[in-house]
Amino acid sequence: MNTKKWKNCGLALMMLIIVSCGVSNVVIVGSFPTPNIAKLPIFVAVIYDDALREFSFMEYTETGEEEFNIESGGSHIQLFNAVLPAMFDEVVFVDTIEEVQATGADAIFAPAIEEFQLALPAKTKLDVYEVWIKYNMRLLTAEGDYIADWVLTSYGKTPAETFRSTEAAINDAAIVALRDLASSFSLNFGQVPEVQTWLSNL
Amino acid sequence: MKLYLLIMKHTRLLSASILLTLFVSCTSTTVDEFRQGETGIESDESVVILGRRQASDYETRSEFISCVGEGMNRGENAINVVPEQEFVDAMFPWFEPRTAPLRTQDLERLMAEDVIAEKMNDFGIRYIVWVDGSTVQSGRSGSLTCAVGPGGGGCFGFGTWEDDSNFDARIWDVGGLTSVGTINADATGQSYIPAFFVPIPLIARVEANACQRLANQLKQFVNGS
Prior knowledge:
The complex is a heterodimer. Chain A is α/β, with parallel strands linked by helices. Chain A has one domain (about 45-200): Double Stranded RNA Binding Domain (2-Layer Sandwich), CATH 3.30.160. Chain A is about 40% helix and about 35% strand. Chain A is built from seven helices and eight strands; from the N terminus they run αββαββαβαβαββαα. Chain A has helices at about 5-20, 50-55, 75-85, 95-105, 120-125, 165-190, 195-200, and strands at about 25, 40-45, 55-60, 65-70, 90-95, 105-120, 130-140, 145-160. Chain A has a five-stranded mixed β-sheet with strand order 5-2-6-7-8. Chain A has a three-stranded mixed β-sheet with strand order 1-4-3, covered by helices on one side. The longest helix of chain A has 23 residues, at about 165-190. The relative contact order of chain A is 0.16. Helices cover about 35% and strands about 40% of the residues of chain B. Chain B contains six helices and six strands; from the N terminus they run αββαβαααβββα. In chain B, strands 1-6-5-4-2-3 form a six-stranded mixed β-sheet. In chain B, strand 2 (about 45-50), helix 2 (about 60-70) and strand 3 form a beta-alpha-beta unit. In chain B, helix 2 packs across helix 6 (about 205-225).
């Protein structure tokens, strides 16, 4: 092999080492079915803030280096867009509280992510990838006054498999967690005490 | 001379194949059945096989569920099997890991929901089979070393481990809202990787055997034979 080929090989090897040491970006992608539940007879305006739209979580190695950057804002929006129209009679998506009054909505729904946790088999020594997400669900009047504010946690896991990448496994676990959020949110919304009181006064 | 060489070549190949088969087929499978009620299925009815995913330290793999479904769906007395993901998506959010019915009483409550009863009827579901289990690897021993140098590369050594697959299948009759039986499939096998320049993996098909035996037994059980 001539000198040029050796140099090229060396360069390729260095690139491989650099790439393998960098942070891995995981954009959560999935599809969410529409829930089969009875609709509540209310008109809800939905506000997604920038923190939710652009939500990402950074997982660090045990030595403190950046390992996985998980972007799940887009998939959260996609999930709420599939679930909310199935839960309420009418749903409108707005950017600010000021826009709500013109729509004639009964209430404003504003979800927020409070915490995101990832557990990898290399750290837990279990054969599963796990994702926990903690949410703060807020329901406000059309004027922006408090109706209810409750915490919801969701959990998803997927088994470790020989021929699946860590990125794909993280994505699968996150999708299970998002479906878990959709199921507990859609089935338990009417059972939140403050929501129950508000609904009975409508 | 040519004939002698040809016979020798084929004899070696045959010996290697026999040896390989002996190693590869080193799997034992036990299937236990416990019947609680009468079963039978019409040609327009179907079965759905669902994986239990409530355990914290393992998860019933969806590939295993598909494998059992495919096994029941082919051959003599084949049964219509609704794919797991299609069913779970259509029933969303009632068959998710946290909301799925754990007992037949829960299924009875679920069937009181019109939309669920209607979808169950659309699919023609006669039986729900809940499969719970996993494959565990243990007894890993031996050592295998691979090296690459300017003159070439190779692997040397010997590695071995044991795989144990244990799966429980509980069969619920959707018409009668009762549990009609349980089938357990337990398969164990030893896998080997001898390496002399080239590693030769001799993998025991433990999970595949458990799947095949469970599918056959389920098919017979559901058909009532």
